[in-house]
Write a structure and sequence with these properties.
heterodimer; A: mainly beta; 7-stranded mixed beta sheet; 4-stranded antiparallel beta sheet; B: 116 residues; mainly beta; 5-stranded antiparallel beta sheet; globular
């Protein structure tokens, strides 16, 4: 049972380009969360999705950021017109559906560098 | 009210010693408290977690102590080893109905170094 898979592991974008980060949850997991980690800081919640639904996007910047989790395929975090301040590690986590299963498991992250 | 405060920021412990990391929260709706371990360049790995209906949980060398009235919880690493050197994050969550996972609020992390 593979863990949470994120790709790419490293992504370099020039200012103004688009960044697409992908996350495949663990098998059987239907909940996906995206977090952002700045250097030497903790993780900050961005968005929580279930299949085809955004459940909580209270941590998402209002502009340039969007996320989806389609019925088929991985979850995508999209950052349009990237700026230097978007440089960070972006982590995806997944958790299973069902009662009494609160554990969230993280992927290895995508390290975005904006030059 | 959503913050989780973690201390110390860094910690140096000798091999065989006890490492203690503390966290405090304000939001009384939080009812799930996990600890994550993160090595450089890796994602956070779930270490141990506790619900507020118990005051202590132990798994191997790792113990969580939980004080509901004080809204504090701590991680104790017994017999600390050099391989434990990593950054540790506490977190808190208000679970959905039926105990399903929800978003996590993280502390700022503690960088632990275990020396020989």
């Amino acid at each position: 049972n593979a863990g949470v898979m994120q790709n790419p592991r490293h992504l370099v974008r020039r200012r103004g380009q688009e960044a697409r980060l992908r996350c495949s949850p663990m098998k059987g997991h239907s909940h996906v969360y995206w977090y952002r980690q700045l250097p030497e800081e903790g993780l900050k919640f961005m968005v929580y999705l279930q299949k085809e639904n955004i459940i909580d996007e209270s941590g998402m910047p209002k502009e340039r950021f969007s996320a989806e989790f389609p019925k088929e395929g991985p979850s995508i975090l999209r950052i349009q017109q990237v700026v230097r301040g978007d440089s960070a590690a972006y982590f995806c986590a997944s958790s299973p559906p069902g009662q009494g299963k609160p554990e969230a498991f993280f992927g290895q992250g995508t390290r975005l560098t904006v030059v | 009210q959503q913050q989780v405060k973690q201390s110390p920021q860094s910690l140096i412990v000798q091999k065989g010693g006890i490492s203690i990391i503390n966290c405090a929260y304000e939001n009384t709706a939080f009812d799930y408290f996990p600890w994550y371990q993160q090595f450089p360049g890796k994602g956070p790995a779930l270490l141990i977690a506790i619900r507020p209906d118990v005051s202590e949980k132990k798994e191997g060398r790792f113990t969580i102590s939980f004080n509901k009235s004080a809204k504090q919880f701590s991680l104790h690493i017994m017999d600390s080893q050099p391989g434990d050197s990593a950054t540790y994050f506490c977190a808190a969550s208000a679970l959905q109905m039926a105990g399903t996972a929800s978003k996590l609020t993280f502390g700022t992390g503690t960088r632990l170094q275990v020396t020989l």
